[in-house]
Amino acid sequence: MSRNILILPGDGIGPEITREARRVLEACRDEGLDITLDEAPVGGAAIDASGVPLASETLEKAKAADAILLGAVGGPKWDAMEDIGKRPEKGLLALRKELGLFGNLRPALLYPQLVEASSLKPEVVSGLDIMIVRELTGGIYFGQPRGRDTREDGTRHGYNTYVYDEHEIRRIGRVAFEMAQKRNGRLCSVDKANVLEVTMLWRDIMNELAPEYPDVELSHMYVDNAAMQLVRAPKQFDVIVTGNMFGDILSDAAAMLTGSIGMLPSASLNESGQGMYEPCHGSAPDIAGQGLANPLATILSVAMMLRYSLNAPGHAERIEQAVGEVLDRNLRTADIAYPGTEQVTTEAMGEAVVAAF
Amino acid sequence: MSRNILILPGDGIGPEITREARRVLEACRDEGLDITLDEAPVGGAAIDASGVPLASETLEKAKAADAILLGAVGGPKWDAMEDIGKRPEKGLLALRKELGLFGNLRPALLYPQLVEASSLKPEVVSGLDIMIVRELTGGIYFGQPRGRDTREDGTRHGYNTYVYDEHEIRRIGRVAFEMAQKRNGRLCSVDKANVLEVTMLWRDIMNELAPEYPDVELSHMYVDNAAMQLVRAPKQFDVIVTGNMFGDILSDAAAMLTGSIGMLPSASLNESGQGMYEPCHGSAPDIAGQGLANPLATILSVAMMLRYSLNAPGHAERIEQAVGEVLDRNLRTADIAYPGTEQVTTEAMGEAVVAAF
Ligand SMILES: CC(C)[C@H](C(=O)O)[C@@H](O)C(=O)O
Ligand SMILES: CC(C)[C@H](C(=O)O)[C@@H](O)C(=O)O
Questions:
Q1: Which pLDDT score is estimated for A79?
Q2: Which residues of B form the catalytic set?
Q3: Which superkingdom (chains A, B) (predicted)?
Q4: CB–CB contact A147 B197 (8 Å)
């Protein structure tokens, strides 16, 4: 039973980082992992090719795949698009929604070899290991009604709706509680329940779930305080669970605490364990095509894929070990290089991981 | 023409920090500033006294005041209130809305004496001086419809509405452009225009205003990237303008970059220059009544008040100098004390500022 992996390179540095990740997948195949690989365009690349950010053919392939590896989407070339439905990001959002990928896992992990890269003091971040569980198919990203209108008097206004159903909250809550069980047993739910009714419901549902997980210690934090605490003392967190919008913001802040967002993978899972895997960072159009991009986040996304969707933890571990080894050998792409390390290209980094595999 | 200042101590550490700020106001009065001082309860204290977080009598006093000094509101005692309209925070939100205090200025300034207090590396934050301009009376905080409902099938859901009119965006935009003119001429508008229609309008309006301020360089940033950039390289920012919710989150993160949120004042202004002034930090119920709170943010809020609402820049400057002087003398409240400094109580800190005034 060969597993079917769809690679969606996307825009900006997407093609070059997924190219290296593909090499790693091929190395796994050479070592007994039974997979087939396919590729398709998404985002701006798809707009350029077919006029839409997610062609129905690509969506069908994605639905049929056992797992998806995504590079990144978006760039200034398509930023002027007034119609939100025709922007590269829409391709990503449609994939998440159509595949039901509600459970977004975003680790913020500091590699001991890279503690220097952080803008925070070493004692504040060394050993940092947070898992952010972000709800990915609901909230204000998808709420209706939404739009822009002009009133009769000519005044323009814009509106979006932040809405959650209890079952949407409960299912992401379960993912987070289970994650906390597998980690250090602490779960912090982030909301703005002192102002927003939708997040009061969020808090209630988390509290209702808590008795089912007596081994997990649940706490609540307002989103403004969470943003502050991430800066002040990030090691206080184990697992954080939050909605789509707050998760977008906090996961990027948390990732940047490590100083090496080029290292951080992510997974987006649906109820049947099918998943899309992608680096936490964006498409970085400013450095695209120059061999400056760090492929390790995408390569580590492959490791997450093997663990969560393909049940191949052995291969996952080998990839992670190979990454650790190239870091130990002081190989660094531009984003994480500093005096005393050896700066290498995107491609050389990919090759080094494959060689260490 | 005596000016009328209303002090709203609020909850937690609110009473003790406003007490010290009041001393400073009295010192100004002794030195020729023609003011009268009044006090009223707000937030949890008002709930305890009268059952509502903002009594109509207090609101009337606030409307009649030339300026308002607020301590902080909220605490676990009132957190269980299911009805958002009866929570302490509602008193604060109602004041903002009823007085039309749409322009929230939140400086994130690092005092050179306190660079050690930051969790970031000194080279990343020394000299940090950001002004965050947050829209305060619109957006998702006040959008309708909002609430919690149970559907016919028994499913609960919650919802809030993120909405902006073009005139709301334009007037906060003007505040921000003018602020950038007075500072270093750079304005970064933060939105999520790749996903939310309401913030596409936000971006459009900022772009429409730009030609009126040719001396200001306008840029745009997505909120997730802004959260990241604040952690990575905060000194890239001069003025940031954003909506109510994003401003809540980013201003707290920015404040915490300094490591001394106990030092940061804020102003909330309406169209006629009337203002409410308060520390950036919250009510910190865990340390209330122990003399541990830092009164300097509230004292510096008085300085902002004198500058923006009472047209007394001379007195404002004297307060700021007095604060600088006590820091130079190494006096520190618990939150900013470190080995080699002299830890003093809330009250002693207030007295020291008055003595240096
Ligand atoms: C590109 C954008 C639509 C997306 C999001 O906001 O979810 C990205 O920022 C992310 O976090 O994956
Ligand atoms: C207390 C709360 C309602 C308030 C807000 O969210 O605006 C506070 O966090 C602030 O930033 O002033």
A1: 78
A2: 141, 192, 224, 248, 252
A3: Bacteria
A4: yes
Q: What are the tokens at B212?
A: 């009126």
Q: Residues 259 to 278 of B: which have CB under 8 A from any A CB?
A: 259, 261
Comparing C-alpha atoms, which of A295, A193, A159, A267 is closest to residue B196?
A159
Establish if B245 touches chain A: CB-CB under 8 angstroms.
yes
For A1-103+264-357, give the CATH class: alpha beta
Edge-first strand order for the sheet with B35-39 is: B35-39, B3-10, B67-72, B275-279, B265-269, B103-109, B129-135, B239-242, B186-191, B217-222
The CATH number of the domain covering residues in B1-104+271-357: 3.40.718.10
CA B192 to chain centre: 23
Which CATH architecture fits A129-257?
Answer: 3-Layer(aba) Sandwich (3.40)
User: For residue B235, what is the DSSP state?
Assistant: G
Interface contact flag, A225 B124, Cβ < 8 Å: no
For A55, the token pair is: 């062609």
Domain limits, chain A: 1-103+264-357, 129-257
Tally of residues, chain A: 357
Residues 6 or more apart from B327 whose CB is under 8 A from it? Answer: B111, B113, B114
Which phi and psi (to 5°) does residue A135 adopt? Answer: -70, 135
Percent over 90 (pLDDT), chain A: 95
Residues of chain B in contact with residue A245, where contact means CB-CB under 8 angstroms, are 192
Q: What is the DSSP string of B5-74?
A: EEEEEESTTHHHHHHHHHHHHHHHHHTT--EEEEE---THHHHHHHSSSS-HHHHHHHHH-SEEEEEE--
pLDDT at A81 over 90: no
Q: Looking at ligand 1, which residue's alpha carbon is closest to its atom 8?
A: A248
